[in-house]
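Structure tokens please, single chain.
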Amino acid sequence: MNFSQIKNILLSLLVVVIVSSCYYNEEVPFEPEIEIGEVSFSGKIIPIFNQSCNSSGCHGGGVNPNLSSTIAYSSLIDGNYINLSSPEQSELYLWMIGDKSMPMPISGPNPTNNAYVLEWIKQGALNN
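Here you go.
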């Protein structure tokens, strides 16, 4: 073997190593597997909104939907933020998981809260 052949073999091996080392690693957000059961709007969803969403300047009246305790339900239903036929496509849920422009809350998606909200919608989004 001459130098040119060795150089071509080494170059070929280098290309194979580089190409085989490239891959796309999709990061899938962790959705916890939790036992949820029946989800009450007043008992579980409102506390999530109180903790994360309805502070001053956010969804406490400054930004739609208004998620303050007394008006949250009608604001979500009347504003078409809930899709009962396809819960995963509900605008509320899409914002919470970050599939709309910016995730809500701004601190980032909370998989546990997201699971509760999605389950509440799947259970019919009742005002209970």
